Amino acid sequence: MSSHREAPEISQDPVADSADLYAFVSPDVPNTVTLIANYVPLQSPAAGPNFFEFGEDVLYEINIDNDGDGRADVTYQFRFKTELGNNNTFLYNTGPIQSLDSPNWNRKQFYDVTRISRGQSQKLGAHLPSPPCNIGPLSTPNYAKLAQDAVRDLGGGRKVFAGQRSDGFYVDLGAIFDLGRLRPFDGAHNNFGLAKLVNSGGVNATKDLNVHTIALQVPISDLTRGGYNARDVNNPASVIGVWTAAFRQQVKLWDDVKRKHEWSGPWNQVSRLGNPLVNEVLIPMSRKDEWNRSQPSDDKNFAQFVTKPELAGLLPVLYPGAFPNLDALNKSGKSRDDLAAVLLTGLPSGVVNGFQNNTGHVQADMLRLNTAVPPARKPNILGVVGGDLAGFPNGRRVYDDVVTVELRAIAGVTFSLIDKNFKPDAVAGQVTDGLTPANLDIPFMPHFPYLGVPHDGFDTPAK
User: In b/e form, how buried is each residue of 168-186, taking b as 16+ CB within 10 angstroms?
Assistant: First the structure.
């Protein structure tokens, strides 16, 4: 979770695994949108001598649909290249790394950024440096400065960063995948005749882990239909759909002369991510790899798993007596059109007062962002559910509590938006895994790239 190891095939290919996606109007530069795509999930900071990096053989993309057909109208592509400085050492660095061009840093990565729109390709940046991993106080004595030096200006109010960050996604993986446990409600869980469970606080499984982040900040007009500078929340041109994807070439061969694998042939998509937790929680195991290979425009083929979510049926079983209204809703056979709106089409006008992020009738898993909604003065981590229209599912900010929001939606709190006769169970509005951003050791940043400085290998306990 959000998309860490979510499907059998991609769990074996972490450098191509789309782990998290964020899209939001930048709070400190509100005429821009920040797009963040994370890869290489669940990194232990102490990872020498082969520290984590992007894949040279992976094509990374951030895609934007601005006309509601579930197809990319604007695409940003990223390709990485690794350069070895010293062929005769096993070390990542041979002394302190105090600058991005330090001769002590032996294994550097660089990348190119290309923007594609209407069939036209524009290279925005070439041979841009990615910072090293955060090794420890001797090897990377001023990591925050190294990382900030790697933030590059692409001109025209555009910025880019690609490198290691602290994983800002917080989730109690250990409890949730132990038969759907939520520690704050353990006492009500069906314990299957085993020892009685006791309520407790959540445990953040990603607390001390890092990811590799691709972050881009661009003017709103770079993304919207016709370059519309969003002012009107109700104008469909204010809404964009965002997803990230990774591709590998079709053929992988072992070159016995070069003593390494070589890739060739057309590019095939191996992972993608729009809304958090969709493939993780809603798509069945037998179709997760298929979902990763498919396009958002084809998500009608998976809509049944959104409108009839397995987890909604499990909650009344796992928590006997706690969800009688949800149980009745499940047994009624009614389609969960509320979840389809949140995840596949966006919310139309009139559902939430003063808000919409609808992209039309095409069912497509994308983060939908209404770029005319200004950043919140007092953000609420529950986003739209908490009365904060600048948060999830209106895009996704780095601190939004998407686990709680989606658990409550599946438990029925959003069904009353489309069926006024339905009354959500009292506990549905309290469901949570018990975590907030306070459960992170490293805080978010108030400026680009927003995710915090990564944990260093020397000071972080091994997991």
Answer: bbbbbbebbeeeebbbbbb
